[in-house]
Amino acid sequence: MTSSHEAKPRSRTWWPLVLAIVAMITVMQLVKTPDVAPIKCDTDVAADAVDVLMLSASWCGYCARARQMFVADGINYCEYDVEQTQTGANLYARSGVRGVPIIYVGEEMFVGFNPHEIRQALVAGDVVSLDRL
């Protein structure tokens, strides 16, 4: 006698999805921005002795990318965390903008991370020569 509740073979249509997710996670780990420790203005260097000042947050991916660029390009910089330092919070409030990073190259302020514009300002301000970038 055959039962009307016979087990049907399980579909294997979910395997491609699992493989795609695993591949995506693997690729993300391979291209992940290497961690670069922040140079803190309040403890590591004097803020008036640097060419670039950045207002950042510990969770900010663009801040990490900017930090990596400054180190790779040999740019003298430091940063204030807007959530963990009082000076950073005060400067952030005074800036009048929302979002991080806020990057100062001389008197010029950049909101967000645009490597091309920042490098142009560094060259224009004679902070770095074009052949060094």
Q: What does this molecule look like?
A:
- Strand 1, helix 2 (61-73) and strand 2 form a beta-alpha-beta unit.
- The protein starts with 14 loop residues before the first helix and ends in a 9-residue tail after the last helix.
- Strands 2-1-3-4 form a four-stranded mixed β-sheet.
- The chain has helices at 15-30, 61-73, 86-95, 115-124, and strands spanning 52-56, 77-81, 102-105, 108-111.
- The model has no long low-confidence stretch (mean pLDDT 86).
- The protein is 37% helix and 14% strand.
- By secondary structure, the chain is of the alpha+beta class.
Key attributes of the depicted protein:
alpha+beta, 4-stranded mixed sheet, elongated, 4 strands, 133 residues
